[in-house]
Amino acid sequence: MNRLELLWGEAFFAGSLAQLVARLTGLPAVVLLLGVGLVIGRAGFHWVQPEALGHGLEPLVGLLVSLVLFDGGLNLRLAGRDLQRTVIQVVLVRAVFGLLGAAALAHALAGLDWPLAWVFAAVALATGPTVVTPMVQQMRLIPVLGQILEAEGLILEPVGAVLALLLLQLALGDLTSLGAVASLLLLRLGGGAAIGAAGGWLLSELLRRLQALQADPGAPVRISEDSLPLQLSLGALFLLVSGSEGLLPGAGLPAAVAAGVVVGLRLDKEATQLDELIRQLAQLAITVLFPLLAADLSWAELSPLGLGGVACVLVLMLYRWLVIQLGAIGLPSLGWREKLILGWIAPRGIVSAAVASLFALQLEAAGVPGASALKGLVFLMILLTVGLQGFTAPALARRLGLVEV
Fold this sequence. Notes:
Elements: H1 2-25, H2 29-40, H3 57-75, H4 81-108, H5 114-124, H6 129-139, H7 143-172, H8 178-213, H9 228-247, H10 252-267, H11 269-294, H12 299-302, H13 306-327, H14 336-344, H15 350-365, H16 371-400
Helix pairs in contact: 1-2, 1-11, 2-11, 3-9, 3-10, 3-11, 3-15, 4-5, 4-7, 4-13, 5-7, 5-16, 6-7, 6-16, 7-8, 7-10, 7-15, 8-9, 8-10, 9-10, 10-11, 13-14, 13-16, 14-16, 15-16
């Protein structure tokens, strides 16, 4: 028990120290969080060993990630048909061509067998809000582009996680055809979104009635002045996510996004006040999870990939620019500068790391070769995208004149 307490203490302190350095220096926080995790973990001094948490780490990561996605859903405001069309078109094009391109590159350059290459491609779809949102906020990217990037992450992160799980089952022989994968993907995404929307509607009704009960004669009590709405929101969210996972494995993440969107739309100003509290908790989740998951990576898992793994990730980063060009066809609101910055910012985050770690354990237990290579390639993708884009994207956005003054 003492060792586990020390592990959590070290992870929290390391994450908070990275946030402090980011605040004082202006360096990207996500890069420092990832770096400090490598230093304190298996790739560094072995101070933090996440494997000591056993299977308890997986559900904890799932709940904390759901908090970040719920927070993103609260803030999702795609006002105007042009913005909505842009997001839908970019997401659909990237879902198709991003999946095909990532699988081909993983097979040709990193040497993954086709079944694992498709699993990697699904994981690579997720440009998570756990990384994109802090990066966008810190670099002060103009709101429209920030909304496109955040919406892309909110939509594709659940899609990528569920699709990767189903493709893993296909690789292990638990599913027998791509038709089964497609039908289960629609069922779990649709079911999770429906459950989340219903739960979000009930939660918003409860918060409305609570606000009416707490109202003073002169004016209603602001949500930010009472912690009870926050407690109810967290309790309802975690029950909703865990219940969705119990009914439909993988449905928890789309349920969290849908619940956040519904609560945000129905409460409007009150949701903004609630978000001020939830954002702090979401930031705390990011602060501890990033170092903890990075600490689980060892250099031995990266070294067998060699230059082929590095080339795979670098080409995949450049390939995104082509995908964005396709997705922006017929969208006059996106000029060459906007397409350039959208094509460069695509860091992967906590969900990718958690999914890769879990899948590696399942593949090793089933005796499937290439499990460590899959995990290593995913973490290499996280390292390179967070590191390169985290350091270069702010300067590129300023150069292009796409930051708020």
